[in-house]
Amino acid sequence: MTRRVVVTGIGVRAPGGNGTKEFWELLTAGRTATRPISLFDASPFRSRIAGEVAFDPVAEGLTPRQIRRMDRATQFAVACARDAVADSGLAVGELDPHRIGVSLGTAVASATSLEQEYLVLSDAGREWEVDPAHLSPYMADYLSPGVMSAELAWEIGAEGPVTLVSDGCTSGIDAVGHAAQLIQDGTIDVAVAGATDAPISPIVVACFDAIKATSNRNDDPEHASRPFDGTRNGFVLAEGAAVFVLEEYESARARGASVYAEIGGYATRCNAYHMTGLKKDGREMAEAIRTALDLARLDPTAVDYVNAHGSGTKQNDRHETAAFKRALGPHAYDIPVSSIKSMVGHSLGAIGSIEIAASLLAIEHGVVPPTANLHTPDPECDLDYVPLTAREQRVGSVLTVGSGFGGFQSAMVLHTPELTA
Predict the structure, then answer these.
(1) Per-residue pLDDT tens for 372-397?
(2) Residues acting as catalytic residues
(3) 225 lies in a domain?
(4) pLDDT at residue 406, rounded to an integer
(5) 3-state secondary structure the chain
(6) CATH code, domain with 70
(7) pTM
């Protein structure tokens, strides 16, 4: 019999809120956290706006050595992991370390630190022949993405499977899905899983500028992220992280743990079509949704809320809308759908986990977060996108989805444990 997996702890670092409570308050208030970039001089770039995290590593309790060693994204992940473990009430030090695993997702890993170190080493690109004396002793850490998940393992004392998942913007869903599968299979009993990214750096901004994927609404950054709106013109880059404690259901219940939700089903597909392009029919995302629902043993009519990818590009929003209709049938028109990227931006590999956090909190509080900045609906996006204002309602199950460059399409179903008991 397949073991059941539940989420017992959450830690979030997102734009506009330092911690899970502030994150949820921002979402339910429909406030936006997208602003002009302050982390570097963005004046030469086409898109000069982003969702930045107000993160102080010293206040977070990181030591000077940790701060020097870890990339900003790794710092986010460690801070979130500490929060998640504390929130779960789990005494990880009393567990068999071989039964604890880590699964961390990221899209660009330590790209920020790599770029910064290159600029130091090359004297801002002026020197072709460089002096290795100027090289950081942690350059190898920045080059190897797996070091990020290793840092989490060291933090919590995990000696089971430790994995780094990097498949673009679905990494945050896929990392949590992988961890859930390890528990279901009996490989481990506990996992610390989630995703992190800190991509607000010149090289990443330049990459998205080159393909004009990001919004250039620089004169109105607070309203630049407009998923499903007819006036949208691209996504707004962001940073952040979310990390969770996952446990086997019976063990969590035996210790009296407070459960946010059960991970009922997870699936991922690839369209094998185009690096950035999407098919209009949404077939691959629809297949991932159907498979996730089948694994959760839920009918589409049991879905109370859809947490959309909702990046704010015309291609994605229309593709996603088609996928919902294809997978959920007529019920797609009856389910509230929203995109929190309208408020916190798109943090690449991290956003899937941040959206899982929003989904879990929607179940806990019985509130569907809104799609901010949705004033002029795209006629081709004709579902209930919860414009502008949060909606109070019972939320027993959530479908959360992700779509990423490379054709990756992922879906996860979260629900109260009683729903399939």
Answers:
(1) 999 999 999 999 999 999 999 999 99
(2) 169, 309, 346
(3) yes
(4) 82
(5) CCCCEEEEEEEEEECCECCHHHHHHHHHHCCCCCEECCCCCCCCCCCCEEECCCCCCCCCCCCHHHHHHCCHHHHHHHHHHHHHHHHHCCCHHHCCHHHEEEEEECCCCCHHHHHHHHHHHCCCCCCCCCCHHHCCCCHHHHHCCHHHHHHHHHHHCCCCCEEEECCHHHHHHHHHHHHHHHHHCCCCCEEEEEEEECCCCHHHHHHHHHCCCECCCCCCHHHCCCCCECCCCCECEECEEEEEEEEEHHHHHHCCCCCCEEEEEEEEEECCCCCCCCCCCCHHHHHHHHHHHHHHCCCHHHCCEEECCCCCCHHHHHHHHHHHHHHHHHHHHHCEEECCHHHHCECHHHHHHHHHHHHHHHHHHCEECCECCCCCECCCCCCECCECCCEECCCCEEEEEEEECCCEEEEEEEECHHHHC
(6) 3.40.47.10
(7) 0.96
